[in-house]
Amino acid sequence: MLIGIDPYICVIKRRIIMNKAKRQAIIAGNWKMNKTPAETTALINEMKPLVADANCEVVLCVPFIDIAAAVEAAKGSNIKIGAENVHFKASGAYTGEISAEMLTAAGVEYVVIGHSERRQYFGETDQTVNLRTLAAVNAGLKAIVCVGETLEQRELGYTETLLKYQTKMALTNVSAEQLKNVVIAYEPVWAIGTGVTATADQADEGNGYVRAAIAEVYGAEVAETVTIQYGGSMNAGNADELVAKVNVDGGLIGGASLKAQDFSVIVKAASK
Question: What's the rounded Cα separation, in Å, for the pair 123 and 110?
């Protein structure tokens, strides 16, 4: 026994680390409003050999207009294609929206839901995030559900409260079986597209709050199997430190996912 270390704490830490090994690390690129179909084909073709040996799930979430090109370019590779949003209705008078059934028919496997930019610019709420999540998993899609706090909320000490609330709201009426197709991405709003990154400890803490919220609803055993990504200016320079943390199971990557070499470095970090 190590001197000065509680053996019970050692057992708990060993158990958590073992469970991290059982969780699937996922590196998902979120292209946002970038790339034409032709550029999509070129970038994926450049990426394919760079990530071919990945020991983690590799996903590219692209604009709706690029889905067909992305699915075609990714054929025969280990790259999965995702969308950046999904509507909660199967059909109807929702101009500009895309249903889960449309996405699955197009060959999409993943979809980002509740990204902070959707919340900030397009009126996304915790309630609509939940409805979109249910629509996605009911259609067989894997949902990457985003949660995160603003700088003001962090400075006021509300990070834990907010992350737990957002997580529980997003997962309302999601069964334990459906939860197997849900990934949570902790993305501190103050670190998205700003170049400011949460420290590795802050990322691990935030992801830990999310995992605790899942444990409060589904139990600890289930919570320890859920993939929780960090999203917020993860890049080739800081990926190793971030993904080494116990509660960080990959990343939701913005700008770095538009550069094949940078993205491959992050994938390699998550594959260790």
Answer: 22
